[in-house]
UniProtKB/TrEMBL annotation:
Membrane topology: Multi-pass membrane protein
Bilayer-spanning residue ranges: 20-40, 60-80, 87-110, 122-139, 151-177
Descriptive protein name: Chromate transporter
Localization in the cell: Cell membrane
Organism: Paraherbaspirillum soli
Keyword annotations of the record: Cell membrane, Membrane, Transmembrane, Transmembrane helix
UniProt keyword Membrane, yes or no: yes
């Protein structure tokens, strides 16, 4: 039977198998209070070494333009890439099943003790921690982006449209994604021209 496991250039600390995917995404789901983005990056990039910063950013970017839960999209795409459909099922199961059991238990406890001031204070503290983790993940993802003017302009346009103008997310994505793709397609044609232009200079230097 063909082995569909993949590794990164530096080599992950353990082979990427369906079982390893289940355990990794189960840990992401269990730790991901307020969202799994920061924990997914930490697990897949820092802890496991299965993805580089650039690879994770590209995978997350594609997951975010699809409708639905970003974390589930990320689990499906990464699991499918590593171990086929078995990896996709294992990653999604790990991401959803363990947190679901804990969620049911916490819902029952909250129904009994949710009115206590201590419980409400703890929930507010958890919300603050989740916000801090999201900010940290956003800064790390921004650092992984190329230092190019178009990246800053597109990021600023998205921030202004969504955070300041409160425009619908779907409309903003429908406008900025084609612009971003168009910019990249245009720039793919640019590197060949400077190389051909520099060739005569190289030959002149070789003669001298």
């Amino acid at each position: 039977m063909r082995d569909t496991r993949i590794t990164v250039e530096d080599g992950p600390r353990e082979p990427i198998t369906p079982r390893a995917l289940f355990m990794a995404f189960a840990m992401i789901g269990l730790c991901g209070f307020g969202g799994i983005l920061s924990w997914a990056r930490r697990m897949l990039v820092d802890t496991k070494g299965w993805l580089t910063e650039t690879e994770f950013t590209e995978l997350l970017g594609f997951a975010q333009i699809l409708p639905g839960a970003n974390g589930t999209h990320l689990a499906v795409m990464f699991g499918l890439r590593c171990c086929g459909w078995r990896g996709a099922v294992a990653a999604v199961a790990g991401l959803l099943i363990p947190p679901f059991g804990i969620l049911i238990s916490l819902a029952v406890l909250y129904q009994w003790y949710g009115a206590l001031p201590q419980v409400r204070g703890a929930l507010k503290g958890m919300a603050a921690v989740a916000a801090g983790l999201s900010i940290d993940a956003g800064i790390r993802l921004a650092r992984a982006q190329p230092r190019r003017a178009r990246c800053f302009l597109l990021s600023a346009a998205a921030f202004v449209a969504i955070a300041l103008l409160n425009l619908p997310l779907a409309g903003v994505m429908a406008s900025l994604v084609p612009v971003s793709i168009g910019c990249e397609l245009l720039l793919l044609r640019q590197p060949a021209w400077p190389q051909r232009k520099a060739a005569p200079m190289d030959r002149k230097e070789g003669r001298s």
